[in-house]
UniProtKB/TrEMBL annotation:
One of its GO terms (biological process) is xylan catabolic process. It holds the Pfam family Polysacc_deac_1. One of its GO terms (molecular function) is hydrolase activity, acting on carbon-nitrogen (but not peptide) bonds. GO terms for cellular component: membrane. It comes from the Bacteria. This is Xylanase. Residues 135-309 form the NodB homology domain. Keywords: Carbohydrate metabolism, Glycosidase, Hydrolase, Metal-binding, Polysaccharide degradation, Signal, Xylan degradation. InterPro entries: Glyco_hydro/deAcase_b/a-brl, NODB_dom, Polysacc_deacetylase_ArnD. Residues 1-20 form the signal peptide.
Length: 334
């Protein structure tokens, strides 16, 4: 039975981080989120999710506590002032919650491009990266982990010196946690692809949030980290469901159709014919024919002048919550 995040739970108190705060910028106590984010609700949503991630990093949470993070009371109004900024951190002052966490200190290094530069120390100010001379592309794989095919794919990627993002299904993560751990060990990223792959827009906001919260808990238990991104099954998302996640929604602009072809040659030909500069390629690490297609796809695209990059490198800016990202320079609100 799925555990609903709204259910009342009994939690033991978490020990508080006792690191001494550095000197607080005097004016920061009078600032609002509206000021430091340029009145941008997407940036505030990103700060909320970074707060959850920081709590998960600073405290050893149980599965139910990780699920509760999704409903942790955090500021939704841009007029809120329950934070301070010093030379190293943004400190969030939390209202009463079931985790008994009072503060969360987010390193400013994680907030570059999210907080306006005028409120950041020089070393953390966001600088737009120099455009690459290469054509760029990002590889993504859905529906794993698979106990046989995912390790095989990881070795292929490592040999080619390519990293990818794996959008994993929670029900598989709890069966093969060591594979999820291996994905990160090989330098890749893990995203949330729901618990058991329903169409999230057809099950309602609360059940959809539960799908994401359960998978967060599974990935956290396996790897010790929370996934930064969500990819909804079938790409199906709307504002009601997507706004509950407080995360970037990663879509794609090249569908390999490996799930339909189940044929290595057809998958290769389709990807090579449809990939362009700035593509996010959708593939699956649960089909042997898909994994077999990857070496040729990588080697051919490299010969054509493509460089394989992470999602952040592709977008050349921080990925903000409640935006859908389809490819380079192609992001849309929910």
């Amino acid at each position: 039975m799925l555990f609903l995040v709204a259910t009342s739970l009994s939690f033991v108190a978490l020990s508080q981080t006792t690191n001494a705060a550095t000197q607080t910028v005097k004016s920061s106590r009078n600032l609002t989120f509206k000021q430091i984010t340029a009145n941008n609700s997407h940036r505030l949503g990103t700060i909320r999710q970074l707060t959850r991630s920081q709590i998960a990093t600073d405290h050893k949470l149980t599965g139910k506590q990780v699920q509760y993070l999704a409903s942790l009371p955090l500021p939704k109004r841009l007029s809120a002032k329950n934070f301070t900024i010093d030379s190293q951190n943004l400190t969030m002052y939390l209202t009463k919650n079931k985790l008994n966490v009072k503060t969360a200190r987010i390193p400013l290094s994680k907030l570059s491009g999210i907080i306006l530069n005028r409120y950041m120390p020089s070393k953390y100010k966001f600088k737009a990266p120099v455009s690459s001379k290469h054509k760029v592309v990002a590889l993504t794989f859905d529906d794993g982990p698979d106990p046989t095919l995912t390790p095989r794919l990881l070795k292929i990627l490592k040999k080619a010196n390519v990293h990818a993002t794996f959008f994993e299904v929670g029900s598989s993560v709890i069966r093969y946690p060591q594979i999820s751990k291996m994905v990160l060990k090989y330098g890749n990223q893990i995203g949330n692809h729901s618990w058991n792959h329903p169409q999230l827009t057809s099950i309602g906001r609360l059940k959809a949030l539960n799908q994401i919260a359960l998978t967060d808990a599974a990935i956290y238990k396996a790897t010790g980290t929370l996934p930064e991104f969500v990819r909804p099954p079938y790409g199906a998302i709307n504002s009601s469901v997507g706004s509950a996640f407080d995360r970037p929604i990663i879509q794609w602009n090249v569908d390999s159709r490996d799930w339909a072809y189940l044929n290595t040659t057809k998958t290769i030909n389709h990807v090579l014919a449809t990939t362009h500069n700035g593509s996010v390629i959708l593939m699956h690490d649960i089909h042997a024919t898909s994994v077999a297609a990857v070496p040729t796809i990588i080697s051919t695209l490299k010969k054509r002048g493509y460089k394989f990059v992470t999602l952040q490198e592709l977008m050349q800016k921080p990925l903000l919550s409640n935006y859908q990202y389809f490819g380079k320079n192609d992001y849309r609100g929910l």
